[in-house]
UniProtKB/TrEMBL annotation:
CDD domains attached to this UniProt entry: AAT_like
Keyword Transferase (UniProt): yes
Class of the enzyme per the UniProt entry, highest EC level: transferase
Organism field: Sulfitobacter guttiformis
Gene Ontology biological process terms, A to Z: amino acid metabolic process
Catalysed reaction, written as an equation: L-aspartate + 2-oxoglutarate = oxaloacetate + L-glutamate
One Gene Ontology term of the molecular function aspect: L-aspartate:2-oxoglutarate aminotransferase activity
EC nos: 2.6.1.-
Keywords: Aminotransferase, Pyridoxal phosphate, Pyruvate, Transferase
Annotated protein name in UniProt: Aminotransferase
Length: 398
């Protein structure tokens, strides 16, 4: 018996890009210590008061089926938060609570695409994007952004594919690059969406991690609220990755369909998790700043280290917990460099190629180990790259 085409082709036939990560995890399982700068997860755990609230409300009885769309108080709190942060009037009816940003992405694409439709997204991209599109039987079409332009996508490149497309997905602050789209980029994107009648799916799960400039939600741009679905999550902003709670903000008629989808898939998110999320949101901005602070600090440390050498280049990152480093001077691909670094120094990073062709010759470094380990790892990485360049030059002249 064969699995469906839809599910068996979700990965597109190629690798899933996680081989270096898998090798690192295997080394750890075999007892070899590895500095992991791979996965986008904090080096702290969910704060105890949030877990205590989860415990309290679960013991208090909130363990039955919860409201499928999300408990009203949480939907209201998120609507209020979005209104305050973006200036776009947002009501409970614009919000559905989901099992993390991940299922929000899948739900959003299910809501706006029919089988065979083309869905655009920007390369480099968060690794699951093409699979999400294939998972709803649509056709993924990547639009390359360029390292030389700090990975801000060109609206003309998006427009060139827009006539055949139904949706565009963007992600700012960006995983894997740490780039935050500026107002010009977002105005250009909005213009293309309006002209070509595209749905915009805006993945904003890193919106509390801004190191420079500001986050602009494209839903706040002229004529965009009616065609934009925003993906949000508690994972990154509140260090709640394991709680699996996020949301979609969308026009009311789309949320109505999403509630119907949830009725047939997840049947909602556990009530005690939703109560804990509400409690976490009520801790306010100071708490979110505290969660983001280690990444801000490590980014500053990284800039100092990178400034002192000239072999490893850096795409200026204005947000998120990642840095994209340019290692093309070593002559290696991102993947070859990542394997070599892992073998030589037991430091695991993600090859840029895991996130699309546009990031070839780069590596993504997650700033997710403590400051001392991060500084040591980054210094080692730079020295390693320097050695590769020196050896390469020596080989060329011998
Ligand atoms: N979008 C992006 C860009 C991400 O990096 C992630 C997680 N790494 C997600 C969505 C999904 O996160 P979650 O399901 O934990 O909310």
């Amino acid at each position: 018996m064969q699995a469906s085409q839809r599910i068996s082709t979700m990965l597109g036939g190629g690798s899933d890009g996680w081989e270096v990560f898998a090798r690192a995890r295997q080394m750890i399982a075999e007892g070899t210590p590895v500095t992991e700068l791979t996965i986008g997860e904090h080096d702290i755990r969910t704060a105890a008061p949030i877990l205590q609230e989860m415990h309290r409300t679960a013991l208090g009885g909130h363990t039955g089926y919860a409201s499928i769309s999300g408990i009203p108080a949480l939907r209201d709190a998120i609507a209020e938060r979005v209104s305050a942060r973006t200036g776009v009037p947002t009501r409970r009816e614009n919000v559905i609570i989901t099992s993390g940003g991940q299922s929000a992405l899948f739900a959003a694409h299910t809501a706006v695409l029919d089988p065979g439709d083309t869905a655009l997204y920007i390369d480099p991209y968060y690794a699951t994007y093409p699979g999400t599109v294939r998972g709803v039987s649509a056709r993924p079409q990547a639009i390359k952004a360029h390292a030389s332009e700090a990975f801000q996508p060109r609206s003309a490149d998006i427009a060139a594919h827009a006539a055949e497309a139904k949706s565009l997905m963007i992600n700012s602050p960006n995983n894997p690059t740490g780039v935050v789209y500026n107002r010009d980029t977002l105005n250009g994107i909005a213009q293309v969406c309006r002209t070509h009648d595209l749905w915009l799916i805006s993945d904003e799960v890193y919106d509390t991690q801004i190191w420079e400039g500001m986050h602009i939600s494209p839903r706040s741009l002229d004529g965009m609220a009616e065609r934009t679905l925003v993906i949000g999550s508690m994972s990154k902003s509140h260090a709640m990755t394991g709680s699996r709670i996020g949301w979609v903000i969308a026009p009311e008629h789309i949320v109505t369909h999403l509630i119907n989808l949830a009725t047939h898939t997840t049947y909602g998110v556990p009530g005690f998790i939703q109560d804990a999320a509400l409690f976490a949101l009520r801790q306010g901005e100071a708490f979110e700043t505290e969660i983001a602070e280690p990444f801000r600090r490590r980014r500053a440390l990284a800039y100092e280290i990178l400034k002192a050498q000239s072999v490893v280049g850096m795409i200026p990152n204005a947000g998120a917990m990642y840095m994209m480093l340019d290692i093309r001077a070593t002559g290696l691909s991102g993947e070859a460099f990542a394997y070599a670094l892992l073998d030589a120094h037991r430091i695991a990073v993600m090859p840029g190629e895991s996130f699309g062709a546009a990031a070839a010759g780069h590596i993504r470094v997650a700033m997710t180990v403590d400051d001392a380990a991060f500084t040591t790892a980054l210094n080692t990485l730079c020295n390693f790259a320097q050695k590769l360049v020196t050896n390469r030059a020596a080989a060329a002249t011998s």
